[in-house]
Write a structure and sequence with these properties.
This protein is of the alpha/beta class. The chain contains ten helices and 19 strands. Strand 14, helix 7 (about 230-240) and strand 15 (about 250) form a beta-alpha-beta unit.
């Protein structure tokens, strides 16, 4: 049991129904003590005060009482920085394993000015002090390139970019500077995996280091994981062994490799370019089957109709498209998941190839 320290203080006693009014009244006048906890007893609220004004609203009683102390406020990384630096540092950041990754302006990251270097050092030290579980502080201007990897600059802690990340009972070894991985998709990884059945064949077209593939394999599915980035593919193989599951890892281009496969469930986590591979996924889908299609878009109803229209033009019927917001991308665009359930074909003679129109 924790020990609750107490402290005696002047106070104001008010009827319970007057509690909120009294709290606001004292707070606005700078009289309310925030380091002590108010308490109730026998129909009244007892509020700790720094001192007492001579005149108070009718029915409020001045007294002294013993109050439990509030625990000290936990300081965040921004609280430990001077004001000029604090404005540069975001409140939100990613944690991958024991590595904190925060976005900072590119001019600051690229600067070799001694003042800029000292500023980055202060930011790194603030993170390490505020978050004891963090061992490495990395700054990035964002992701880019064919493999969507982060440009990383280490600004605090140990000099490494490799770590082991854990989510939903899964362990993922990866290098944050050489492969794409987002911890913000943890719930989405689990949501998709929860729909997988043991007798399914799952194709993960853009597998990365394996979060979707490994969780699906844990459900007993036969999983084929395709990854073009050779570094990510190697980590994927390691993670398959680390988690003691069976996944067939295929290193190569998703369009070329999926033509050799058929699956009941296809995962397309490439939100900027997945539309270029949509026909290939539909052509490899066993019916009835599901495609988890990810897309950055601003007009969700329009995107949903485009998906349904293309399925119908390929001779597919009974298509159900369920959109779900996965995250924000910009003020006008969101990262979306479209779960596409395809039930049956119109004709059995084959599916006509239709070029995907860009949205």
């Amino acid at each position: 049991m924790p020990i609750h320290h107490r402290m005696e203080s002047s106070c104001v006693v008010v009827p319970l129904q007057e509690g909120e009014r009294a709290r606001v009244y004292l707070l606005k006048r700078g009289l309310l003590r925030l380091d002590l906890k108010p308490f109730t007893q026998e129909g009244v609220l007892v509020l700790p005060t720094k001192h007492v004004e001579s005149s108070l609203p009718s029915g409020w009683v001045v007294d002294r009482a013993s109050f439990p102390q509030r625990p000290p406020k936990t300081l965040g990384h921004r609280d430990l920085l001077p004001s000029p630096v604090r404005s540069l540092v975001p409140r939100a950041f990613d944690v991958v394993g024991d590595i904190a990754i925060l976005r900072l302006p590119l001019p600051l990251l690229n600067s070799r000015d001694p003042g800029a270097i000292r500023t980055l050092g202060k930011v790194g030290q603030a993170f390490l002090s505020a978050h004891p579980s963090i061992k490495v502080v990395a700054a990035t201007p964002g992701v880019g390139g064919e493999y969507r990897v982060r440009e990383i600059r280490l600004i605090g802690g140990e000099a490494r970019t490799e770590t082991v990340h854990q989510e939903y009972g899964m362990r993922l070894k990866l290098d944050v500077a050489r492969v794409y991985f987002s911890p913000r998709l943890a719930q989405e990884h689990q949501r998709v995996a929860s729909q997988v059945r043991a007798n399914e064949t799952v194709i993960d077209m853009f597998a990365g280091v394996g979060p979707f593939s490994i969780l699906a394999a844990k459900r007993g599915a036969e999983v084929y994981a395709i990854e073009k980035n050779s570094v990510a593919a190697q980590y994927l193989r390691e993670n398959v062994g680390l988690n003691r599951v069976h996944v067939t890892v295929i290193e190569g281009d998703a369009r070329e490799q999926i033509r050799k496969l058929k699956g009941n469930r296809i995962i397309m986590n490439l939100p900027h370019h997945a539309q270029d591979y949509f026909y290939d996924a539909l052509s490899s889908l066993k019916l009835p089957g599901v495609i988890h299609y990810y897309r950055i878009c601003g007009d969700v109803p329009k995107e949903r109709e485009l998906i349904k229209r293309e399925c119908e033009r390929m001779g597919l019927l009974g298509v159900q498209v369920t959109p779900r917001v996965v995250g924000t991308f910009s003020p006008t665009k969101r990262r979306m998941s479209f779960d596409c359930l395809v039930k049956e074909e119109k004709e059995r003679k084959g599916r006509k190839k239709i070029k995907r129109s860009s949205a």
